[in-house]
Amino acid sequence: MGASDAVITGRVEPGWEAVHEAFALNFAEHGDVGAGVAVHHRGRLVVDLTGGWFDAEQTLAYDDSTLQLVFSTTKGVTALLCAALVDEGRLDPAATVASYWPEFAQNGKQAITVDELLSHRAGLPTIDATLTLAEALDWLTVTAALAAQAPLWLPGTKHGYHALTFGWLAGELIRRITGRSPGAELRHRAGDALGLDLWIGLPESEEARVSPLLAAPPPDPAFAELIAQMMGPDTLGGRALSLNGTFGAGATGVGETSMAWNTRAVHAAEVPAANGIGNARSLSRLYAAALADVDGVHLFSPRTRDLVSRTRTSGSDACLLVPTTFGLGFMTAGQFSPMLGEGSFGHAGAGGSLAFAHPASEVAFAYVMNQMDNNLAGDPRVAGLLAAVQASL
Fold it and tell me: Residues 6 or more apart from 346 whose CB is under 8 A from it?
């Protein structure tokens, strides 16, 4: 039984059948093995589908109990937590990071603002030190290394994707303000109230539900050369995507996926840029609560939403070497990740996952999968799903 024979379960409301068709096509033509897609419209769940296989051997079904690590789609979750603190007046984008985290002022970082930090302009996409994986998974060790690090460029003068460091930097702001780790803040603020199957720092009780990531197929030679130029181990992009080699070559999910991301140790730790684990329904529901009240939870006001989702960085990315656009922690609509166009805010994850909100259409969307592809955003499987969402609207 191949992927084209994938069993799809779940529900689709009338008028949204095109999303089901696009989802089925991903298994038939685009190599999906196991995946989930969800759409909320005006706060209501209108698409909730899972399908395919939990494992490469195709022995278990990928169903609504399955959990998935979503790489940088996690950054959008962390950005939502920061936005909620902005809304409450507890986090000021114009304030210095050091005003919340005094140790951060080391090595010429005393003037870096929260705005610069969250929009990838702080010059801290990686560290000069080489940590062991165990050290990188220890919160106090990795944040101390970032506090001691000198910026790699003059903060505010350009932007470059803080692929892993973003999570610890933003997460330490959350911890200093709330007294809770980002994972604990997620459960406190929304996870429990909304009944989300979504964690940063997965409880051991949920581990058996996690579908292992499957390595992307080898890219063709020309594309492999391009990946090496952009993200080889000695490039700034490669160092950013692996924390100077700590997470190994391919930690991005591009090319050979580092199997460290399939381990209990990585799942249990908090890496708020990359190790969120959940499902499409929960990610979509969380973004729906950024647009409107969902069962009594509304993460922040429209005024704050407009503030944090406004594009603050654009142009060539110093790490990825292609144009990227960011708001206050969120990817915003652009060439790199179009989402549903102007006003969209969210985040894509390496290999294919994506979650975001689009205020104009009142849509929240999420797609997760176990089969990696050779990309950091703009996955063809996502493109088909988004075209179907647009048609349904």
Answer: 73, 76, 287, 330, 331, 339, 354, 355, 356, 357, 365
Burial class of residue 191 (count of CB atoms within 10 Å of its CB; 0-12, 13-18, 19+): buried
Instruction: Kindly state the helix (H) or strand (E) to which residue 184 belongs, with its residue range.
Output: helix 182-186
Give, in order, the Cα–Cα distances in Å from 289 to each of 34, 68, 161, 295, 339. 26, 21, 27, 9, 18
Strands (E), 29-158: 34-41, 44-52, 68-69
Q: What is the pLDDT of residues 251-304, one digit of tens each?
A: 444 444 467 899 999 999 999 999 999 999 999 999 999 999 999 999 999 999
Q: How many CA atoms lie within 13 A of 223 on its CB side?
A: 9
Cβ atoms of 380 and 371 within 8 Å: the answer is: no
**Of the candidates 42, 50, 43, the residue with the CA atom closest to the CA atom of residue 19:** 50
Could you give the CA distance from residue 343 to residue 332 in angstroms, rounded to a whole number? 7
Give me the sheet containing 68-69, strands edge to edge.
68-69, 276-278, 198-200
| Amino acid identity for residue 279 in this structure | N
Distance CA 178, CA 175 (A): 5
Kindly tell me if the per-residue pLDDT of 346 is higher than 80.
yes
Structure tokens at 15: 């008028």
Structure tokens at 330: 């969120």
Give the span between the Cα atoms of 193 and 297, in whole angstroms.
7
Phi, psi of 24 (to 5 degrees): -65, -40
Q: Of all helices (H) and strands (E), which one includes residue 173? A: helix 165-178
Element (H, E) at 303: helix 302-308
